[in-house]
Amino acid sequence: MKDVFMTAALKEAQKAFLEDEVPIGAVIVKDGKIIAKAHNLREKRNIATYHAEIIAIEKACKKLNSWRLDDCELYVTLEPCIMCAGAILNARIKKVYFGAKEPKGGACQSRFDLLSSGALNWQTECIGGVMEEECSQIITDFFRKKR
């Protein structure tokens, strides 16, 4: 099932690509069903916090009428940044799957380990490398096009 949900996140990333946004997509899953999907909208909305993960978390909270997403999983095409990792922890998401690593600012495995470090009051399991090649390729293609 991981590939099915990551494929849905990649479709969101493709939407971002077509809107000239950094192509990152995210979906939130509860009980085996997608309850929220989103892609980056920072450029379009001129809001610094409009990362795919943040928007998906907001949509899932509204759908469930709760800020607690402790029965949910997040699939995102790029390893979350520090801001998104904080939102993931605050929402109590139980598990995160990401595609491509983010060596400069990844907050799950690459640069930091905020989600499962045990330093905070909540821990989220984080699994990287899901469909890593496809997730890396869309970002590479985007920045190659920009240059």
What can you tell me about this protein's structure?
It is a single chain. With 147 residues, the chain is α/β, with parallel strands linked by helices. It is built from 5 helices and 5 strands. It has a 5-stranded mixed sheet. Strand 3, helix 4 and strand 4 form a beta-alpha-beta unit. The chain is globular, with a radius of gyration of 14 Å. The protein starts with a helix and ends with a helix.
Helix content: 25-40%
Low-confidence stretches: none
Give the strand order of the largest sheet, numbering strands 1, 2, ... along the chain. 2-1-3-4-5
Structural class: alpha/beta
Strand proportion: 15-25%
The coarse silhouette is globular
Summed up:
With 147 residues, this protein is α/β, with parallel strands linked by helices.
What brief labels describe this structure?
single chain; 147 residues; alpha/beta; 5-stranded mixed β-sheet; 5 helices; 39% helix; globular
Sequence-ordered SSE layout with sheet pairings:
Layout: H1 2-18, E1 25-30, E2 33-39, H2 42-45, H3 52-64, E3 72-78, H4 82-90, E4 95-100, E5 125-127, H5 132-146
Parallel strand pairs: 3-4, 4-5
Antiparallel strand pairs: 1-2, 1-3
Helix pairs in contact: 1-5
